Amino acid sequence: MAIILAIESSCDDTSAAVLRDDHLLSNVIASQKVHEQYGGVVPELASRAHQQNIIPVVDAAIRQAGIDKSEIDAVGFTRGPGLLGSLLVGVSFAKSFATALGKPLIEVNHLQAHVLSHFIDRGEPKPQFPFICLLVSGGHTQILLLKDYFDIECLGTTIDDAAGEAIDKAAKIMDLGYPGGPVIDRLAKEGNPDAYTFATPHIAGYDYSFSGIKTSFLYFLRDRLKEDPEFIEHHKADLCASIQKTIVSFLLKKTERAALDHRIRQIAIAGGVSANSFLRSELQRICQKHHWQAFIPPFQFCTDNAAMVGIAAYFKYLKGEFADISLPPYTRGGKN
């Protein structure tokens, strides 16, 4: 049995979790509201907030888990990718905490953690290898083939913007506030997804491109606003439903093709955009059509959280893969 303390600080959420093997004991998240007025995450403000939050968040996670810090067997932490200032806070705290306790460190790739969140014990079936995972967030969009916990092949990725970034940009164009994804999801439920069509690029293989979709949406609104300055306000729900359908359909079309080409019958989604209700329902529809099995994470594991870092750290703990205290954080890339 192993008790893992996990720390996540890659962007604007400070999170700490405690796991006993693959069972989650606590998962505490402190979100930062300060970025809403700026329409996006401000790195300097994010790192300052992490400094304020890290100690009380870790303390709360340990207390909620009902353990003493002396019982911790290892400390897992997000090493990257992410914002450098934010990562430095979590990495530095993890190193100091582990050193003070005389416990080993385990470095975790943020993207792997999102995917491996499916293996947190919830008393429900877990994916069986091999399976395909669509990892989709504000910063990343990838189709991954998992052959084992850390044997992951990237079949396709975005060549420019991420899907979540495209959704947030559409929300910003319509002045819906930040973060825009949840607002578009909510308004889209009241609209017609077939009201408008927007161009999707023809990219070879399983790769994506979302910059063209953003441009198509922007030009469409520019032309309509010339005719009716209140066009967005009058058609907000239909616009949200249509741009959401365009992006989700584009995502799942290639995911479905990858599964067919590789003869995979289990499909998972992960990352912040996996909380999108239309993406979740469309994945289930496609899987039912092919008699595949869909794996959709609980909402609490979609956005950045330390529970996913903890499960990834647990599997590394079983392999004896510990990190040297000299390892620095990285902002992009790293082992995938």
Describe this entry's structure for a reader.
The chain has 336 residues and is of the alpha/beta class. The protein has two domains: 3-116 and 303-319, ATPase, nucleotide binding domain (Nucleotidyltransferase, domain 5, 2-Layer Sandwich); 127-297, ATPase, nucleotide binding domain (Nucleotidyltransferase, domain 5). It is 43% helix and 18% strand. The protein has ten helices and ten strands. The chain has helices at 43-65, 84-101, 110-116, 163-173, 181-188, 211-227, 231-234, 236-262, 277-290, 306-319, and strands at residues 3-8, 13-20, 23-31, 74-80, 105-109, 131-136, 141-146, 152-157, 266-270, 293-295. The strands form two sheets. It has a five-stranded mixed β-sheet, sandwiched between helices. Helix 3 packs across helix 10 (306-319). It is globular and about 65 Å long. 48% of the residues are buried. The model has no long low-confidence stretch (mean pLDDT 93).
